[in-house]
Sequence to fold (575 residues):
Amino acid sequence: MNELVFFINNVVIAGSVTGSIYAIGAIGVTLIFSIMRFAHFAHADMMTFGAFMVLLLTTLFPAAGASIGVPTALIMLPLAMVLTAALAVGIDKAFYKPLRAHGVKPIVLVIGSLGVTLMLQGLIRLFSGTGGQSLYVDDRKEIFRLALPFEGVRAPIVITEPQLYLFVITLVAVVALHIFLNRSRLGKAMRAMSDNPELAQASGINTNTIVAVTWVIAGGLAAIAGTLLSLDVTFKPDLSFFLLLPIFAAAIVGGVGHPYGAIAGGFVVGFAETLAVFNWNVLLRPFRDSLPAWLELPSNLAFVGTEYKIVVPFFILVAILVWRPTGLFKGKVI
Amino acid sequence: MSLATSPTPLLEARDVHGGYGSMNILNGVNMTLNANQVGVIVGPNGAGKSTMLKAVFGLLHVNQGEILLNGQPIHNLPPNKLVERGMGFVPQEKNVFPSLTVKENLEMGAYLKPQNVKRMLEQVYAFFPPLVEKRHQPAGELSGGQRQMVAMGRALMAEPSLLLLDEPTAGLSPLYMNEIFDRVKQINAAGVGILMVEQNAKQALAIADKGFVLAAGQNRFTDTGAALLADPDVAKSFLGG
Ligand SMILES: Nc1ncnc2c1ncn2[C@@H]1O[C@H](COP(=O)(O)OP(=O)(O)OP(=O)(O)O)[C@@H](O)[C@H]1O
Ligand SMILES: [Mg+2]
Fold:
């Protein structure tokens, strides 16, 4: 039973945490692709920017959350979402829109977004410094330990307060997005434009509005993902370095341009990562006596070492591009 | 004829030149269509028929000449502005949103008039009954004829005064073809001007008030539909004898 608890803590919870963050990031990437048809490489830095805005606001008003018993960082999140959405719209106006107006090929926009990524990283570093910082400035990170009511179970299931918030916020974000895309006039217009931009225009849909709405949603979601990740671990100016590959892998695994695919892809990549670094030796321990004596199990039986975690999404990406280039859901072939 | 009695044409194109890049595809096209009329554009492949419809609908840069809707210049206005002014367009290809349901496709047609959606949905369903039971199905899964109904229905949702149709019967079985021609006549009878490109030239000219035979981006013949059908020169070169 202790082994099961170990598995829940290190795979089920850890995988859901990583999966949720990748999923929210990948939704943004996929929405931008489906409306503007380019891979937005600055997306992970928009996530970092969102988290940095939360850090700034939390440092300015560290006690804001105490009165209602919520981490201050979470109270600042909506404001950070607005700021990040504004940044996204501003970046589009300043850099991508002029390129689109020239009718450039998508690859030019991709390169442009690489430039934006470098610029954002520099800017964030300039103000935040290079070290890691906790988003819990004035308050304490609660840790919940749930002891299982079974005999012989010593280890509790451990879940932290930010992880619980992460699950709730992910669920709310996904449901809200679903309702927006399928029920609202603007959301349907967004899907229409993703299907056929010329016909959308011929129906009287103002495509500039849809582009702006896309940036607002992608920016807001990026702020959520960046903040929740920074709450779970710490804020670092180079967060995007660890995020970019997995969220693109997630978007492609799910089928580019497919929001539900991005969610599925996020969890596939998140769980693949945690399973790859999980030490399987622990699960085999109860059966040690029944194993043949000559079989000496190494104490660490993980597929890859934690320091090589980043290769997992890369491997998944290559595999999916080779075997199923349109992704799990049918996405646009790129 | 005095000015007072001459009505402003619904659509007037004067000496229109335009194309996709630097090269012109249209080399001086002229068209006049009055309110409530059916205009039909015929001509060989690559003549510039679709290009002319795109020019009217603001999807093509007009380099020279002018296009007037109810007397107002409209060339080089963006399509969404033209929808506001009462124009509807059904392209030759890719004329539905494949992943949207039939109902959502139709709703997009009334995007600028959301308050009319309910009333217009009822009208379009009554007009194209086969769409009713398909309304929750993605348009990409429909047959060619039903897809054409969705495409026309989407354009009708905005209650246009001028409807542009690019080869609405292309690739359809004769049964659906007649159905679509009947619908076009009905739409016109309800007071909507129609400008339509057609490969089935004889059948289309038979319902046309005005016919325009285009070749190499210019008017070759322009007359009433009946007169063009009766003209032996037109018949010999463009109607297959
Ligand atoms: N998007 C485009 N970009 C560049 N050239 C184009 C484009 N669309 C059409 N053309 C060219 O413009 C010319 C006229 O094409 P258009 O589609 O108007 O012909 P059409 O009369 O509609 O023919 P069809 O009967 O085959 O539909 C053709 O030479 C075609 O190759
Ligand atoms: Mg054509």
